[in-house]
Amino acid sequence: MADSKADSKFILYVRKFLKNPLLARSQVSVDLIHPEMANVSKEQIKRKLCAQMKAKEEAVSIYGLKTAFGGGRSTGYALIYDSLDAKKQYE
User: Fold this and answer.
1) Cβ(57)–Cβ(50) under 8 Å?
2) Could you tell me the residue ranges of all domains in the chain?
3) Which residues have a Cβ under 8 Å from the Cβ of 78 and sit 6 or more positions away?
4) Which of its termini does the chain have fewer beta carbons within 10 Å around, N or C?
5) Closest Cα to residue 71, out of 30, 42, 31, 39?
């Protein structure tokens, strides 16, 4: 129950979207706005991104999260694979 409240405390924007059919994935640059939180966990980001992009949580990889000085904003990258097999093959 506490996780669903934490999910609503931040906003996730997909800034750049690139489909990479050779590696069977979508490459996404994300912006996060979280004024009431210091940081956002990768699990929370993954959950919200999967709901937004209609993907499975186990086929998503998040990396490169950086919080802006002063907090409240973060940026990062995500790889959304077409299937779990594709993720295992390329990562």
Assistant:
1) yes
2) 2-90
3) 27, 28, 30, 45, 46, 49, 60, 61, 62, 63
4) N
5) 39
pTM: 0.84
Distance CA 25, CA 77 (A): 13
Instruction: Inform me whether the pLDDT recorded for 53 exceeds 70.
Output: yes
- Using alpha carbons, select from 10, 29, 17, 14 the residue that is nearest to residue 73: 10
What is the distance between the alpha carbons of residues 17 and 13, in angstroms, rounded to a whole number?
11
**What distance in Å separates the CA atoms of residue 19 and residue 33, rounded to the nearest whole number?**
24
- At 83, give phi and psi (nearest 5°): -150, 165
**For 53, which DSSP code?**
H
Judge whether residue 4 has pLDDT over 90.
no
Query: For 71, left (φ over 0), alpha (ψ -120 to 50), or beta?
Result: left
